[in-house]
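2024-03-11 09:14:02 DEBUG pipeline.ingest accepted 1 chain
2024-03-11 09:14:02 DEBUG pipeline.ingest length=289
2024-03-11 09:14:03 DEBUG pipeline.predict start
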Amino acid sequence: MAEKEKRAKKIRKKLLHKYRLVVLNEATFEERFSFKLNRLNVFVFSSVFAVFLIALTTLIIAFTPLREYIPGYSSARLKKQATDLTYKTDSLQQVISINESYIASIRKVLSGDVKTVEFNKDSMMELAANVNASRLDLTPSRQDSLLREKVLQEDKYNPLFSSENLNLVLFPPVKGTISETYKPREKHYAVDIVTAMNAPVKATADGTVIFAEWTAETGFVILLEHGNNLISVYKHNASLAKEQGELVKAGEVIATAGNTGEYSTGPHLHFELWSEGYPINPANFIDFD
């Protein structure tokens, strides 16, 4: 016990033993200044100074732009750029997805790859015959009445459903005799119009050329995109008068009729109409005679 007390007194004595720090002029040994200190003062001062430096460094890093120079620390500018790039990437992905869907639709128009729905008409008639009409409530609801009114107003100005406005929008691309009618079950989504060789093929409505190229099966092909998500297709042409991206007016010559392509059997125009990505019968809307 006594030995421990001696050791503690010795340590205390070392810590509290005073020293004089003197600064002298090296040439004249003149004393400039001096002050007394001990080991405990030096330890306390060093600890306080270290804590101060740590606190000051932390504040500088936390609240000043100097933190951006620390390796691995992202700056506000870099974060903003990363955020902007993320938004642009997302927008580009959406644009790419829309373009891919659009290109797929164009390929479907060119190849005629459309799935048709098959159903048993007899079973539908049998089901309808077994329904007791007296038990059905056919009174239209308010929502149904509003929907009917909305559809009626939309169809009033839709050229594909308005016989009054149809002839003002869609024109026959050529005049001639229909040799092959619209047959969706046989995947013939067009009407074939027999016409003279090199007869002018005209745009059925105002639109933009979205495809104008040669294909082995259908020869020179040109596609026009019109309003109301309507696309018109002209195949087996002898030559094309328009290029992709050009704007055309209704009745403007876009090609000359011919007999090009493996599927052609004589001078004629293979004409298709597509609405919302699905084929429709051109003869229902255009008089080719």
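2024-03-11 09:14:41 DEBUG pipeline.report Confidence is low (pLDDT under 50) at residues 161-168.
2024-03-11 09:14:41 DEBUG pipeline.predict end
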